[in-house]
Amino acid sequence: MSLRIIHTADAHLGAKFLSLGPKGAEQREHLVSAFDAALDLAVSERADLVLLAGDIFDSVPAPGSLVDRVASRIQELTSAGIKVVLSPGTHDPYGPSSPYALPQFRDIDGLFVFTTEEMERLELPGLDCAVFGNANTRPFANRHPLSGFKASSDRRWNVGILHASFEIPDVSADSYVVTPAEIASSGLDYLALGHIHSMSCRSSGKVTAYYSGSPEMVRMQKGEFGLALLVELDETATVRPVRVSSRGFEELTVRAEGADAASLDRLLRSHAGPDKILKLSVEGVRDSDFPDIEEIVREHATSYFFITVTDRSWPAPSAIDPSSYPPDGAAAAFLEGLEPALSAAPDAEKDEVREAMRLGVSLLGRGSSDED
CB–CB of 269/300 below 8 Å? Predict the structure, then answer.
């Protein structure tokens, strides 16, 4: 018989989302709904085992209402005969303040929580499976939990669960770290990873390894979030991402040159969606008749869940008189430096010097308009 697993992580329940303003509270509820949907898969897909790879809560101590809700949902799964294994992460490390040390979690029969930094083995004889994992107990303490590790059991399936970074050359680690070589030599059939919020495959050698990503958007950045993983171990390991959230995130960059109200209106209409979070950036040189981007965004706000605008554009330089710019700014200093060259240039070359002055002010960007 095969072994069916639901793998999820990084729900970050209780995250504040201050950057979303009044929408933050709504997004916090979406976190809970998406996590619920990930757990619901265990029932609908007739899973044998649920792996929770850390950062289920955004912080410790966690709000009591969330602790009760998560514990209740896990209790529902275990009462249905589904085993649940949890590896505490960097945001919800195991310790005296950990929600997993509370009676709500300790008293759940069928839930196992790893509590030490050393790799432990959990025997699940009814599933012919052994699960190996550990807990973050000191957040962001750099170490390699798979260093020298080799799964050893007489069970058919050897499964691992860790909340750890994946080693990337020239990037310093911010928590426990695993490397491709360590994964390949682990002897596991499947390794469930948490900590990276975007779903990704980290398989190495004969070992299938995945980050599930967050079941809902936690940070305003691109990534394969909104998923949970359905894993089936048989002759081979198959992994199927299942969408548990409809929220989407997109980044758009608009060049101010040539843009007008009509083109911006068309752009925002074409990307709209009630579950869309849009991060819009405006760059380049804007003409004097450039439309009010904030006003246009306000007109489309109800077509999105949330829009944020970053204006990195600067006004087209129509003047090359240093007195038109802040006296202590880079633009004024640049133009004053070229004034002698303009005065000394032959009449046939003055236009070229003026154009160089305009171009230089443009390249200085916002330094030319500090008074805005």
Answer: yes
d(CA 321, CA 12): 54
Across the chain, mean pLDDT equals: 90
Please give the radius of gyration of the chain, using alpha carbons only, rounded to the nearest integer: 27
Rounded to an integer, what distance in angstroms lies between the CA atom of residue 210 and that of residue 227? Answer: 12
| pLDDT level of residue 110 (50, 70, 90 thresholds) | very high
Distances (CA, A) of 81 to 3, 46, 50, 194, 248: 14, 10, 11, 24, 34
Task: Please state, in angstroms and rounded to a whole number, the distance separating the CA atoms of residues 331 and 324.
Answer: 9
Locate 56 and state its tokens: 């289920």
Q: CA-based angle 134:139:141, to the nearest 5?
A: 85
Q: Residue 136 and residue 124: Cα distance in Å, rounded?
A: 22
Superfamily of chain region 3-243: Metallo-dependent phosphatases (3.60.21.10)
Q: Which of 34, 38, 47 is nearest to 233 (CA)?
A: 47
What digits encode the pLDDT tens for the residues 201-246?
999 999 999 999 999 999 887 889 999 999 999 989 999 999 999 8
Helices 293-300 and 261-270: crossing angle in degrees, nearest 10, is: 30
- For the stretch 286-344, pLDDT in tens is 776 788 888 999 999 999 999 999 988 876 766 677 876 778 878 788 889 989 998 99
Residue 120 burial (C-beta neighbours within 10 Å; 0-12, 13-18, 19+): middle
263 with 235: CB under 8 angstroms? no
Q: Which residues pair with 85 in a beta bridge?
A: 51, 112
Q: What is the pLDDT of residue 152?
A: 85
Backbone φ and ψ of 104, nearest 5°: -55, -35
d(CA 38, CA 50): 10
Kindly list the domain boundaries of the chain, sorted by start residue.
Answer: 3-243, 248-315, 322-368
Taking the C-alpha atoms of residue 126 and residue 116, their distance in angstroms, rounded to an integer, is 24
Local structure of residue 138 (DSSP, 8 states): S
Beta strand residue intervals within 217-327, DSSP E: 227-233, 237-243, 248-255, 273-283, 285-286, 304-311, 314-315
Strands 129-133 and 248-255: unpaired
Range in 6-20, 61-75, 307-321, 337-351 the model is least confident about: 307-321
Cβ atoms of 8 and 28 closer than 8 Å:
no
